[in-house]
Design brief:
Layout (H helix, E strand, L loop, with lengths): L1 E4 L9 H10 L7 E2 L14 H14 L5 E3 L9 H21 L3 E4 L12 H19 L3 E5 L3 E4 L4 E4 L6 H10 L5 E4 L1 H6 L5 H8 L3 E6 L1 E4 L6 E4 L8 H7 L6 E4 L7 H14 L3
Helix pairs in contact: 3-4, 7-8
Length: about 280
C-alpha cells in the first residue's frame, strides 16, 4: 500500500503547510479536498489558473496529486437537493481531472439506513450512477467511503449505520452500480458503528476497494461518544486488519481528524503503522 495523508484533519491548515508536513514525514502522497470545506483552496468556481497553481505547488514539493476528495450527500429527503449535490460533484470531478487526480473519494450519504428506501434509494443510486459515468469520461475512479451517519455530542461523536457502512446495503448498492464505481475502505468508521472485525468487510468487498483511509476512534471520557484518535489507539485489531490487506497496493491515507495537533497525530499514526511493518 502507498501511505499518504488524508485531507479532513487538515481542514484548518493551509495547503502549503499540508505539503510541508507530508514531506517532513517522508511521504509523497496527499489527498486534496475540493469544495468539501470552506477553507479548501479549490472551490467549485476554481479557475484554470488556480488549478494550475495547485498542480505546480504539489510538483514543487514532490508530492503526488492523485487522490482527491469531495463532500456530498445523495441521501437527502428532497430529490431536487440531491440533484444539486450531483451537479456539484460533477464539477468536482472536472476540477480533479484538470488537477491531475485519478481517484476521487465521495460519499453516498449520511442519512440513517432505515430512512433511505423506496424513492430515496432510487434517487441515491441514480446520482451515484451519473457520478460514475461522468467520472469515467474524465478518467477518474470514484470511490464511495464506508462512512456511517454522525451525531455530534458535547463529548465527541456517535456513529450510526448509513447505506455505505452496512454490509448488506453496500452489497446491494454495488450490485446496482457500474463496475467503475469503487469503494473507499475506512475500517475505523466501520468499527465505530459496531463492526468489530472490519477485516472481514475488507475481504468481502476487496475487488471494489481502490482507496483506504486509516485512523482510529476511542471512547470519550465520561460518555458513550467517541473522539478521533491516532492509528493504533483503539481496541481494533490492527494486526488482523493489515494482514487481511496484505495484497492491497493502492493509496492508504492517514486521516487523523483532530485539527489542533494534526501533524503530531499523523506522525504517531505513521510510527504505529511502521511497528506493524507498513
Amino acid at each position: 500500500m502507498n501511505i499518504g495523508l488524508a485531507a479532513w484533519g487538515f481542514r484548518e491548515t493551509h495547503l502549503q503547510k499540508q505539503l510541508a508536513i507530508t514531506r517532513s514525514l517522508e511521504l509523497d502522497l496527499l489527498e486534496l479536498s475540493i469544495a468539501g470545506h470552506h477553507n479548501d483552496v479549490l472551490q467549485l468556481d476554481a479557475s484554470a489558473n488556480k488549478i494550475a497553481e495547485v498542480r505546480k505547488l504539489f510538483k514543487c514539493y514532490g508530492v503526488k496529486l492523485s487522490c482527491a476528495s469531495a463532500g456530498n450527500d445523495f441521501t437527502l429527503p428532497e430529490k431536487a437537493d440531491n440533484l444539486k449535490q450531483l451537479e456539484s460533484v460533477k464539477r468536482v470531478i472536472d476540477i480533479a481531472a484538470e488537477a491531475g487526480a485519478d481517484r476521487l473519494r465521495i460519499f453516498a450519504g449520511f442519512s440513517p439506513l432505515a430512512d433511505v428506501s423506496g424513492e430515496r434509494w432510487k434517487v441515491m443510486i441514480d446520482c451515484l450512477r451519473q457520478t460514475a459515468e461522468h467520472a469515467a469520461a474524465k478518467g477518474i475512479m470514484p470511490a464511495i467511503e464506508t462512512h456511517g451517519g454522525v451525531t455530534v455530542t458535547e463529548s465527541g461523536v456517535k456513529h450510526f449505520y448509513s447505506t455505505s457502512s452496512h454490509p448488506e446495503a453496500l452489497s446491494r448498492m454495488m450490485s446496482e452500480l457500474p463496475e467503475s464505481m469503487k469503494i473507499t475502505f475506512d475500517p475505523a468508521n466501520l468499527y465505530a458503528v459496531g463492526i468489530k472485525h472490519p477485516e472481514e468487510f475488507y475481504l468481502q468487498f476487496k475487488d471494489r476497494i481502490v482507496y483506504v483511509h486509516l485512523k482510529d476512534f476511542v471512547p470519550a471520557a465520561g460518555s458513550d461518544s467517541l473522539r478521533p484518535a491516532a492509528c493504533g489507539e483503539s481496541a481494533m485489531d490492527w494486526r488482523a486488519l493489515l494482514e487481511a490487506m496484505a495484497d492491497y497496493d493502492g493509496p492508504a491515507l492517514i486521516e487523523y481528524e483532530n485539527v489542533g495537533d494534526v501533524e503530531d497525530g499523523c506522525r504517531r499514526s505513521l510510527q504505529f503503522l511502521h511497528t506493524l511493518g507498513i
